[in-house]
Amino acid sequence: MYGLLGKNLEHSLSKDIHEFLGTDDYELIETDDPATFIKQKQFSGINITMPYKRQVVQYCDVLSESVKRTNVANTIVNRNGTLYAYNTDYEALVELFKNQFIDTNDSIAIIGNGATASSVCAALETLNHTNIVQYARNPIANQKPITALAKTHHVLINTTPVGMFPANDAFENICFEQHKDLKLVFDVVYNPLKTHLILAAEKAQINTLVGLPMLILQAIKSHVYFTQKNTANLLAESLYKFLFLKTANLAFIGLPYSGKTTYAKIMGNRLNKSFIDVDICIENNTNMSISDFFKTKGEPAFRTLESEQTIAIAQNIGQSIGTGGGIIKNTEAMHALKQSSIILYLDLSDSLLEAIYYHGRPLAKDKVSLLELKKERHTLYQKYADIVIRKNTLQHDTIMHQIEVKIHAYIDYQWSQLKLTR
After folding, report:
1. Using CB atoms within 10 A of its CB, is residue 352 exposed (0-12), middle (13-18) or buried (19+)?
2. Rounded CA gap, 179 and 176, in Å?
3. Which of 231, 242, 224 is nearest to 88 (CA)?
4. What is the Cα–Cα distance from 399 to 251, expressed in whole angstroms?
5. For labelling, which of 124, 181, 226, 377 has a CA lying 20 to 30 Å from the CA of 397?
6. Closest to 159 measured CA to CA, from 132, 189, 179
7. Eight-state DSSP code of residue 54
8. H helices then E strands: how many in the chain?
């Protein structure tokens, strides 16, 4: 038996990853007593996650050099009753960093002082980075409080769970516009795909590195220790694309009548994602049609409810979401969608407007009003879109082919930007 040992594993992706790698008997093992489980030795190999990565070291018989160096273990292999401990976080970080960092003189800030921070520090030092400052909410010797974060660092690495699902809204209040020297921001959190920290860095036009590649690389290295077959690195690209496509939401934005609900539902079925339509959720929760809600409550009340509903939906992963046509006017809701979604703009061609049956849309009662909405919103749709789908035909198969091709091209591009050793 193989598995992941931790305290709260409800949202772990480890089972999906290791089953993809070929380990079918992989389990999620939640416990408050890791010592008893490990001492019983009823496993072939296990991964360790928070909060036990340091605690388990004492129960192992043979420690790898990376474990000795960090006092952190996230992989334990049982070989004929002898427990071997490894730190594949460290190994994955070395691989990531050697491809991301150029100048060993760069000043590097690390937020956090837990097990992952220890692995990050050790990996950097292995690659001859010595200009490292560690910050923490509760700093210990040679560390500084986060409030003292200097504005002269070139690289910022978050090793804390701040901003991790389900607390997506949590973030360290860093004004990146004041950190003029920053070249790269790396957040080890992988759910959501992009944390508040990452989105803020992107807004300031700073290069970013998200946590998903580290998760994948450390899992592959664990799999090699489990199986003693050094072929898994060949699967890094396919695993990355599989996991990205599985976990990312598809959020469809666009004008009323552009087909957001239709294509969100079709893509949900094709990719085995939960189909969610924001307008339908609102109608179910209020027992009113959108048109009646507008008439009785007014547009401001609707926009507030629409925003709240969208933000709640956006926190989850693996969904295909049809949004409301006006959601792009709400920055908080769009920020929430950006965290875990590929955002697709269905750009409705003017040539199709005559064929529309106009009904039940309070702000799009006819062709003239729809054109006015397009004039008002088109720039915002383009601003937030990761993918633009030119909808100039009513042939579903043609549009679906365009959507699928562009989604895969988008994920291919994300992989290409990682600059990993091939």
Report:
1. middle
2. 5
3. 224
4. 16
5. 377
6. 189
7. T
8. 15, 17
All domains in the chain, ordered by first residue = 2-86+218-243 (3.40.50.10860), 91-210 (3.40.50.720), 248-416 (3.40.50.300)
Q: What angle do CA 391, 394, 400 make, to 5 degrees?
A: 65
Residue 421 has pLDDT above 60, yes or no: no
Averaged pLDDT of the chain = 93
pTM of the model: 0.92
Q: Order of strands across the sheet with 82-86?
A: 26-30, 2-6, 45-48, 75-79, 82-86, 62-63
Question: Is the sign of the CA dihedral 360, 361, 367, 369 positive or negative?
Answer: positive
Query: Burial letters for 131-142: b for 16+ Cβ neighbours within 10 Å, e otherwise?
Result: ebbbbbeeeeee
- Summarised one tens digit per residue, pLDDT across range 288-347 is 988 888 889 988 999 999 999 999 999 999 999 999 999 999 999 999 999 999 999 999
In single-letter form, the type of residue at position 312 comes to A
DSSP H or E stretch at residue 259:
none
